[in-house]
Amino acid sequence: MKVVGCTACPSGVAHTYMAAEALILSGEKYGIEVCIETQGGCGIENKLCLEDIEEAVCVILSNDINIEGEERFKGKKVLRMGVSDLITKSDAIMAKIKKTF
């Protein structure tokens, strides 16, 4: 099972990367492959390829600011949350995804 996502926050520094790391670590805990693109102060890093997006059962997007290239996820099931929630609730998110898909 694969989940992809994109994290971004208004300042583009800590929370963008903390949310990405939390989701990846929680994915490992639940046996879910997680690929996260970050849109932070250093620009876009770990850009998602179309193959990863197509293979994903769902997409996780932070909703603190607009995500660049969001149209890539058209037709996919999308979960939108603030980066703070992605950090603190990453285990619950992955547990729910595992149960749902």
Question: Describe it for me?
Answer:
Helix content is 39%, strand content 26%. With 101 residues, it is α/β, with parallel strands linked by helices. The chain has one domain (2-91): Response regulator (Rossmann fold, 3-Layer(aba) Sandwich), CATH 3.40.50. The longest helix has 16 residues, at 14-29. The model has no long low-confidence stretch (mean pLDDT 96). It comes from Longibaculum muris. This is PTS system IIB component (Fru family). InterPro entries: Bacterial_PTS_Sugar_Transport (IPR050864), PTS_EIIB-like_sf (IPR036095), PTS_EIIB_2 (IPR013011), PTS_EIIB_2/3 (IPR003501), PTS_IIB_fruc (IPR003353). One of its GO terms (cellular component) is plasma membrane. Residues 1-99 form the PTS EIIB type-2 domain.
Which features characterize this protein?
101 residues; five-stranded mixed beta sheet; globular; PTS system IIB component (Fru family); phosphotransferase system; Rossmann fold; alpha/beta; 39% helix; 4 helices
